[in-house]
Amino acid sequence: MEANFQALSVVLKKYSGIFTELVFDMLYPLPGSHSFDYLRTPGAARNVANRLGLNVNDSYLEQMYPKYASSDVPDQNELIRDFMKACCPDITMEIGLTYVKKTEQLLEHYKIATELGYHPIQRSPQVLDIVLPISK
Known about the structure:
Layout lengths: L1 H14 L5 E4 L9 H5 L5 H9 L5 H11 L7 H12 L5 H17 L3 E4 L12 E3 L5
Helix pairs in contact: 1-6, 4-5
């Protein structure tokens, strides 16, 4: 997560003027994305994890395949919990929320409007939404 945060920091430092708003989520596997397919396709998450040197919870993934194999509109909060437990077992909810806060602060620094896409108590996840200013 730190590498992703640092990459976002570099992008915003260089291009902050093109963003007016950034909506983000905490580890949300958008249905239809590769991340979502990790919960639906046996071996997909393991193959990527091996290639990138990451850890996945193989036994939990095995339980998720039947659950998400034919699901196109799953419960979003449950999906986040399942994804984190299966594909990001080294990342706790606390770590995730820490990076959500750091990202909010980074966006505030660059005066980029933000709407948190996921908050475990107040909101449901939303998809990434970047609003760019219209050129004249």
